[in-house]
Design brief:
alpha+beta, Conserved Hypothetical Protein Mth637, Chain: A, about 15% helix
């Protein structure tokens, strides 16, 4: 399954919100800064909790350095 997210970094809390937007499906807020992949790692951890899967099953396939990202989630 592929989803598109909008990432907001350096937030006061971590959260996920499903949205009705033509550009992305979820809005994620993470407390980590966008430096050295910290925010991307936090996004993967947050999504793994939300979708109840292992972090290894989630990968960012587009938008590594952008706030709009395409995420691939595979089944075990």
């Amino acid at each position: 399954m592929n989803i598109r997210i909008k990432a907001i970094t350096k937030s006061s809390k971590n959260s996920i919100e499903k949205v009705e937007n033509p550009l992305y499906d979820y809005k994620l807020k993470v407390t980590d800064p966008p430096q050295k992949g910290k925010a991307n790692d936090a996004i993967i951890r947050l999504l793994s909790q939300y979708f109840d899967t292992k972090p290894q099953n989630i990968s960012i396939i587009k938008g590594m350095k952008n706030n709009i990202k395409t995420i691939e989630i595979v089944d075990d």
